[in-house]
Write a structure and sequence with these properties.
The protein is elongated and about 50 Å long. The protein has six helices and no strands. The chain is an all-alpha fold. Helix 1 runs antiparallel to helix 2, helix 2 packs across helix 5 and helix 3 packs antiparallel against helix 5.
Length: 100
C-alpha cells in the first residue's frame, strides 16, 4: 500500500531536474520508512523497482526513485547521502498573473 502511494506521488510528469531529484529522495525515504524491520531489503527494493517501471517512463522523479532503489539494492550497507527538501517560494501572485 505504501509503495503504491509513494509511486503515485512521484508520478507527476515533467519537472526540473533538481526538483525531480529532491522528490525522488523524499519518496525513497518514505518507502524506506514503510518497510518492516524484518523485511528482506533487496527483495523489497527489487519489488519496488518493478512496481515503479511504468511511472518511470512518464516521470523523471519516478525514474530517479528507481535508480536510487537499484543503487541501494546492489550496494553494501553504508550511510546514505540524501539531503532534506529545501524550502522555496512557489511564485505567489506574480506567478498566478504570469499564467494568464
Amino acid at each position: 500500500m505504501m509503495l503504491a502511494r509513494t509511486i503515485a506521488q512521484l508520478d507527476v510528469g515533467a519537472m526540473p531536474a533538481e526538483q525531480a531529484r529532491e522528490l525522488a529522495e523524499f519518496g525513497f525515504l518514505q518507502w524506506l520508512g514503510g518497510l518492516a524491520a524484518d523485511t528482506d531489503y533487496r527483495k523489497e527494493a527489487m519489488r519496488a523497482v518493478a512496481a515503479a517501471e511504468a511511472a518511470a517512463k512518464r516521470s523523471p522523479a519516478a525514474a530517479l526513485f528507481r535508480e536510487l532503489l537499484i543503487a541501494s539494492a546492489g550496494a553494501a550497507p553504508a550511510a546514505a547521502s540524501l539531503r532534506a527538501l529545501q524550502p522555496r517560494r512557489r511564485g505567489g501572485a506574480r506567478s498566478r498573473r504570469a499564467a494568464w
